[in-house]
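G., the chain you wanted modeled:
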Amino acid sequence: MDQQGLSLACDKLHHIVKRNRKEMDEPGHIPVQGEGETLLLQGIQIHGGRSAVRRAILAGRQGVNIVNRYRVLIVDDDAMAREILKRILEHAGYEVMTAGSGPEALRKLHDGIPHLVVVDLMMPDMDGFELCRRIKSHLDVPIMILSAVAALESKVEGLQMYAEDYIVKPFEKEELVARIQRVLRRFGESAGVEQPEVVIDPDLQINFVQHWARVRGKQLTLTPTESKLLFLLVRNAGRVVTNETLLAKAWDGDEEAYEEGLRVHISRLRAKIEPQPNKPTYIHTKRGVGYRFNGKVTSSQGPELALAG
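Predicted structure as tokens:
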């Protein structure tokens, strides 16, 4: 869609929002010209209800590209299974990426960080649990395990360590779609898609997949915990992320998480990226509550606005 078409679509969307103000004041999503949780307008699909619609209008008026669909990465070594899953999810309105192995899935993250990853367990080269571990070591991305392995110990390990849900093959497609919708609703805006590399300003660029920050032209390696903390803060730029959330999401399941450790890691992160660590520009403290990232976030490919949430 060209800029003129996008502008017209956003103007029409604005009138629809006004006409449906009553529905917008109710919990949930806007039931206009769409099915389920999607607002469909001249080819634009917007998930997430009021906040997403308002950001869509603003984005259209500012000429920003709109990321308008949830992105799901399917990882399965069975080509037929991948194709079936892809068709099911595309029919349900999702943008779908696929990978036939763990290493390929990790490479796919360089193209874009998905809202959700659906992982098979039994794969050569790298099994599903190892893939989940590697993804979760640096990124807070929701994972769903979809596997023929029905053993209780596998379910328990998957749910305790990595996954938001665990579905045993064979499955009903309606159940799969419903469970995916439930996970994305629960994660909401925090499941928003991110570009692997973001630009904060001329002095700070971050690559969440390769785990580095370029600070005033010097590239610095981020530890897994630093990378994950920064991912959580940048993704929620402008909002306070609570200590409890950071402790729950940035630490591996088998690591002890405590607030003093969080403060130490934030201090080390500031030492790497802040011009003056004692007077932080980017990572601000909300005493007794948590931390807020201050900065305008754009992808290295240009302005982009995620509308999931």
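The radius of gyration is 20 Å.

Shout if anything looks off.
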